[in-house]
Amino acid sequence: MKNKTPLIGIVVGMVLVFWSINQSGELFNFYDFPAIVITVFGSFSALVISFPIKSILKIPIMIKKLISSPPNNRKELVTIFSDLARKARKDGLLALEDDISAIDNEFLVSGLQMVIDGVEPDSIKEIMESKLDALEDRHRSGQAVFSKWGEFAPAFGMIGTLIGLVVMLAELEDPSTIGSGMSVALITTFYGSLLANMIFIPIASNLAVQTDEEIYTGEMIIDGVLAIQRGSNPRVVEDKLLTYLSPAEKKELANAADVSKEATSYE
């Protein structure tokens, strides 16, 4: 499922910037190809130097993640674990094998499979926490790329400004060129600030929030898997996992349960 909110934010932000420019001047005055080259490709070159190539190659994957809805439906997980706990108490842990194929969460499936295979609880916890740590490391690496790009872009904007000032000062004999020369010199700072604050830093922030949410959901899954393995009472499992939900999510889940009971009573 696509999450178009970040793209909408970028588009709206850019439109507002262009509208502001258009209200006070000519859009064409803010176009300078050499300034774009030094700001965009210069900062990207510094990025290539700063990170291993495998991290740079993750940029398209990170952008895809940005516009994808994160798999963090914790309300659904409470329901899934409640149903699994009831089935495990009634028919035993091996009976859960039939339910695994219907679950669309690789991390949860791997944990449940270990439970069914009879792996020790400590080992299950250790393995799942290691997977979660590895996932966090991979995601943090991708965030670091955009965060660093957000630092480089204004710096290369300033480099472009300095280049423009040097060129302008070299032609100082002609005072008529000072205004246009200063304008071209400053445009790179504008590009660098715009790219950093409108694109790179917001993308890094978005990915950081998504990673935090994914880690939080992963911790919830580990608790649920271990509770099922212990044979905990389904109500206890549900109460424990409800602590991971916000008050609004708890209310939505309670309303959904009420609707379900009401529908069942009419059948």
Automatic annotation (TrEMBL):
Q: Which residues cross the membrane?
A: 5-21, 33-57, 149-170, 182-201
Please name the InterPro entries in this protein's record: Flag_MotA_CS (IPR000540), MotA-like (IPR047055), MotA_ExbB_proton_chnl (IPR002898)
Please indicate if the UniProt record lists Lyase as a keyword: no
Decide whether keyword Transmembrane is in the record. yes
- Give the main localization category: membrane
PROSITE patterns, alphabetized: MOTA
Record-linked Pfam families: MotA_ExbB
Q: Name one GO biological process term.
A: chemotaxis
**Cellular-component GO terms for this entry:** plasma membrane
Topology with respect to the bilayer? Multi-pass membrane protein
Assigned keywords, A-Z? Cell membrane, Membrane, Transmembrane, Transmembrane helix, Transport
Subcellular compartments: Cell membrane
The segment(s) forming the MotA/TolQ/ExbB proton channel domain are 102-217
Q: What is this protein called?
A: Chemotaxis protein MotA
Q: Which organism is it from?
A: Alkalibaculum bacchi
